[in-house]
Sequence to fold (293 residues):
Amino acid sequence: MLSVLQLLARLPLRWYHALGGWLGWLVYWSSPRYSSRLRENLRASGVWTDEADYRRILRGAIAEAGRQGAEILPLWFRPQSQVTPFVRSCIGEREVLDAYAKRRGVILLTPHLGCFEISAIYAAERFPITVLYRPSHFPSINNLIVAGRARGREKLAPATMKGVRLLLKALKSGESIGVLPDQVPSAGEGVWVDFFGRPAYTMTLIGRLCEAVDPAVFVAIARRLPRGAGYTIEVSRVEGSLSGPDGIRRMNAAIEAAVRKYPEQYLWSYNRYKHPAGAPLPPDTREGGKGEG
Fold:
């Protein structure tokens, strides 16, 4: 299987993005549940200015979601030396390198925006990075995830207590870590904090790591360029402490700011507002509840 995927990965990036655009529409029209969630999340976000703008972003988001799936092939199954040239520029790279040189630890927050996969690949060419990931329940799929991601100086940390210890160890060693900050955590690992005006169960992990190490924190996004031309990575510093309830709100606000720049490349179909089993009810469903949880 791996050899077949490596063979398929040799096609030009523009082919995957072209095919991915069609696949995005195919999934959209074939899955009412998927399309309904995408429209609902986008509509409720308020990132659009009028109905025409909403329709423009919706069309873009449908195609970009398909491109995100298709681009996995070349990103995971080509040699890393052939993948990093897809990045045409990296805005803010110098500040990240300066923070890394101080050996205080660096956290790269890579939300479901653009091609978050290539951000870690690009970073791993410059310094070691440990990336948090959620293992698949299917061993064969998990093996492919590990084969595609755990290469070179990119290491993986499962979303378990063992993985958290690996992240903390990396930060204490002055290295960097990568986390999807808008991924819904399991019960007991998050609190309800507004995300685009709606309560979203949000991880507390970043705040706890910041309390333990006081690292430099950045939001990193890799924007897809038109017609498969590659990616531009944009990195921005998250100012202020991310510990405690105020820190979690600050983190969500930083993610929102990035999404507002390129809303058509956000994964609006992701079930960001789900209620994890065993987690408390969101505040707007509690009698008289107004807080963040």
User: Anything to note?
Assistant: The first strand starts at residue 87 and ends at 91. The mean pLDDT is 93. The two ends are 45 Å apart (CA to CA). The longest helix spans residues 51-70.
